[in-house]
Amino acid sequence: MSLIESLPRLRTLRLPRADGLIQWIVPLLILLIWQLACSSGFVPSRVLPAPSDVVLAGWKLLLSGELVRNIWVSFWRASVGFAIGGGIGFAFGLANGLSSLSNKLSDTTLQMVRNVPHLALIPLVILWFGIDEQAKLFLVALGVFFPIYLNTLHGIRTVDPQLIEMGRIYGMSNAELFRRVIFPGALPSIFVGVRFALGIMWLTLIVAETIAASSGLGYMAMQAREFMLIDVVVLSILIYALLGKVADSTARLLERLTLSWHPAFQNGED
Amino acid sequence: MQEPLRLLLSDAQAVDSIEFVEEARLARWSSEADSRGLSLTIRGLRKSFGDNEVLRDIDLHIPSGQFVAIVGRSGCGKSTLLRLIAGLDQPTAGHITFGEQTRPEDIRIMFQEPRLLPWARVLSNVEVGLGSQRKSADAKARAEQALVEVGLQEKRGQWPAVLSGGQKQRVALARALVSRPRLLAFDEPLGALDALTRISMQRLLERVWHEQSFTAILVTHDVAEAVALADRVLVIEDGRIANDVTIDLKRPRERGSAELAGLEGAILRDLLQGADGTTDL
After folding, report:
1. CB within 10 Å: which end of chain A, N or C, has fewer?
2. Any idea what the CATH number is for the domain that residue A72 is in?
3. Residue contact A169–B109, C-beta within 8 A
4. ipTM > 0.85, yes or no
């Protein structure tokens, strides 16, 4: 097969474009097999619609404007929830990493809250906020708070004390020490937190939207289930996968831009 | 001869008459007023960590521009003494006074680890050494000049991660030199380097010390290094200065010469005798 023959050639060329394409070979292959399995009748369309049917369903929803509206609503919820929860988590991580008083005051409480699965709060959240926007934002924010909090705290705690001593010897003020030594030192760990948080962000949003929502991708999937529109259900799932990939790629890009000093990022590998 | 002597009289009140001759000798090749070495006097210095008394009653005078090496077995308190001189720790008793008023940039310390910021390019790492003058307009030019002095100007845009151990230590030296310190403390800066890199680093240290005439205090466990570089070797044992040896050999000194080997042997015998009561080597 020509695809397989071309693989080693692409690798030896080492074009950044070619490298970017290689990662899509497996998803495309799966899509191809899926399409063949459906159109040959091996898989009944009531169990799994063919990719072409999913694309067709997507096209119809796109024309009606429903798809764009739902994607936008979900994207908005995800990013606002992420910004709120991530911002608070980052602030607590900084405060508790830099001040032992702040750490003594709040860390025990936060660790107790952390051990409550945030999705277990859904009944309570519905009672508090109904099925409005606040409910979804609250859950997403709560979900992303902990990975960002924990990894920011860990990053600041593990900055090399010898570098901090060096900074003090060379007369850095506290602000300068933070900007030049502590924050850059904590950044790799903060990015680990961001990538964990992105995963939790989508998970929380899907659950929240399928249980209690009147718009968004999860709602679209639940509505489709009611009307047995299995192609729309599969479409929603695929869109979630794509959005997740987009979020992860963005985080990777930011990582590569800000951590170019790190030996792990110097070869430009993905 | 009149000129340097007159200059010395004005700022040498604290210096004892014995050191006066030494001062005059060193002052001859200190051209710029702000690059002269600091003299240093220590009186009754003690340092303990809890019940453990690391330094007991150190009295010491180091004249301006002298290259002093401090040797001793591990845990004898030599690094503690250096950290006290550099102002990183506070003494339990006694005091350290410098011959003149000092600014923080006048005293610099270099460690065994380079302690470079991995996320800053080589040039920015050197700029860190400017201390409070980091924001001045000529900061970059001064950092470049310091890199030239250690022979690494072509690495200015690199990340520290790609440098070798010896190159990293040279960047650390440039960072220590960039503020034109008047006293430079070295805490085993060559301890982690291989033998050949060590020798070229020793030559570099000697050269910059000679050019900039700062006072140098080198803590080392390598007696050969101490006698090759220093004007004076202090042997520390059980928190006290057990021996104070003047190395009166002309520079540049030839590595492996009989005189150096003889001095090294004498100091080593001394150290080992103090340790376990035998003279066997």
Report:
1. N
2. 1.10.3720.10
3. yes
4. no
